[in-house]
Amino acid sequence: MGKQVVVLGAGIVGVCCALELLRRGMSVTLVDRQEPGRETSLGNAGVIARSSLMPFNHPGLWAQLPRLLKNDTVQFRYRWNYLAKNLGWATRFLLNARPSVFRETVAALDGLIRVSAPEHLRLLGEAGALHRLRDTGWMLLYRSEQAWNGSELARRTFAQYDVPAQALNAAEVAEVEPALSPIFPRALWIQGSYSVDDPHEVTAAYADLFRRRGGAFTQMAAGAIRRDGQRWTIQGGHDSASLSADRLVVALGPWSKSLLKTAGIDLPLAFERGYHMHYSGLEGASLSRPVHDTGGGYVLSPMARGLRLTTGVELDACEAPARPEQLDLAEARAREAFPLDRRLDEHAWLGRRPTLPDSRPMIGQAPRHPGLWLALGHQHIGFSTAPGTARILGELMCEEGATARHRAFRPERFLASA
């Protein structure tokens, strides 16, 4: 097929895919309704961590389910009518927590993250953004010995996949992060991992690198896609503008679902929404790395703008109104752990994390739609896995024999091939 490609979606996944395909000699146009990195990629915790191989739907989820379904935790909340309309997705999500699928997912995500980390380092250097990188890892904090014991599956999985980690007691936590309150008897310091101080600026730097190397960026809202002969046409959402290309890559994150419906593809995608807010620290209190308070249900990450508090999961429709109560609860728990000062943002930021039933992204050509390629469904770990996704997509689009190596991400696992 021809080498003219349109990549829809200028988040971290789409930008990395555009860079990789450009590197492989294709003529690439990147398309988004906003400037690169202004949507889902703007609001994450900035972590590039090997520990992200643990999916939310793991075998321990069944024991947690009665508590989570009360719908009053900081970690997980849901809208009843949304869950009722998506019981099929929820059932598949729970079924994929069984041990056999969990093991397959962990192995697949581990491989994806292992590829992504060195690619991030390369791109950060080439984009002139290495100053945004920290190599201090991140920490998982536990508020009780019971919570620590309940994390045994995660720790065992990290050891199995050689994720560097150091167990800390209360005194060691205080030594590593002295600004934290002494409420954590246990912690796990994930080492050999990275974080950045502004995910949006990193995405924007990658997009600038793409432009400097000859890639084109078009700001346009994609309303529909269709196949015309041997080419794909992208129709603008609110005007008569359109683009066409030999091949089309859909990397629109949560908005992939509605767009792909215009091509007759029903994507089993749900939206794990989340919020963030920036804060100052009292009397200059700070952190040296992101920390995840597993009992508090939030991540607190040092950013260029201040300390970013990101919440857990809210299951709701993609464009449903914001419900910042979850952020308020997370803030209250965070104030127990750290001397937060005032809020620095006028409004809470709301993002949507696109999740497939097995917590793996979908990377490959859409069945029965030649020339239509998918790179979507990265749930909470798009920032950690974007460069690896791009590498896999490039291999699949340009090389023979790559399909077998990347079966865990094949679209056919959810989309009919006949």
TrEMBL record:
Top EC category: oxidoreductase
SUPFAM superfamilies for the chain: FAD-linked reductases, C-terminal domain, FAD/NAD(P)-binding domain
The FAD dependent oxidoreductase domain, residue ranges: 5-396
Entry GO CC: cytoplasm
Pfam families per UniProt: DAO
Gene Ontology MF: a single term: oxidoreductase activity
Alphabetic keyword roster: Oxidoreductase
Enzyme Commission number, as recorded: 1.4.99.-
Protein's name in the database: D-amino acid dehydrogenase
Gene expressing this chain: dadA_1
